Amino acid sequence: MNNNTLLTLRDRISALDLKLLSLLAERRALALDVARSKIASQRPIRDIARERELLKRLVTEGQKLDLDGFYVTRLFQMIIEDSVLTQQALLQLDLNHQEERSARIAFLGPKGSYSHLAARQYGARYFEQVIECGCQKFGDIVQLVETGQAEYGILPIENSSSGSINEVYDLLQHTHLSLVGEIAIPIDHCVLVSGSTDLDRIEVVYSHPQPFQQCSQFLGRFPQWEFEYCESTAAAMEKVAQLNRPTVAALGSGQGGALYGLQVLENNLANQQENITRFIVLARKSIDVTEQVPAKTTLIMATGQQSGALVEALLVLRTHGIVMTRLESRPIHGNAHEEMFYIDVQANLRSTKMQKALRELQAITRSLKVLGCYPSENVLPVDPE
Q1: 36 is in an annotated binding site
Q2: 94 is an annotated ligand-binding site residue
Q3: Is the pLDDT of residue 357 over 70?
Q4: Which end of the chain has the lower number of beta carbons within 10 A, N or C?
Q5: DSSP run (H or E) holding 183
């Protein structure tokens, strides 16, 4: 095959890619029309039975075209997830009469950090224009939102590999901001370098403490490497780009590294294959969540010191059929041996069962606060089988 033939084939592929993008945009527009219809009819966003039948039919039709069933399933699961989240966003905007089409969003680090990628993804779903506000510390993000210098703050709260981010939980104890959203970002840590080099030549690696923790098994293969902590992965990328030496590297995302002219030397480094960070979205004003979408409510409470106090509180949730998805404890600063409990539940704050549970919890706890109710972004994929 000569070069002209190869170029012609690549041009045809590029033309098809553009058509695919156009079709995806057309499909999303139709999904928004479906959402508007559901607003009028008060029907739930998800129809699991229809999604399963759709995937079955697409797998069958794909096999007639010699397309692997797993490939078709995975592709359309992503498309369905985008459709569900896009429809959820439209319903939320309608319910809360949100007419602002631009917003200032604060996040950790300069451009290219994982928090920046999360802010961009959330902003693209809800706003036409986003003004990005990078911060050096988690506390700075909260302060910007509290003082009105940003409408929203994006904070990482937990990672599937390294667990909870305690500093963020501690900040939630002392702020009057409300949780209004969540977003999950798949994390693909990479070794990022400036120019040509190889792993054996690297001497110093820069990153935020979290990636070092999450990639400990890979990093253990290189005991000669020295680790330098930065405020964020983006700050590490910026440092490596400025140094421009073959002996330094950063741990961070490939997307972020590209913004700084860095190349990926090695990727997929996390100890766990499925490495996902969950971010929360904070705002000064709480929101209502339509009952047409799955909702989460986050509580913070302090129980008494008597034996079984926490169990008694959790039994209230069980009695009302409320599913708890996360329980975290953090010390109460200034009160030795006392703890504050953070609880995520799958329930809409406006529901009857949640209101009954809150009244019962208030009667048996020393303090109870609802941090926020927000749409759940956890769109579980449907299996066609």
Answers
A1: no
A2: no
A3: yes
A4: N
A5: strand 178-186
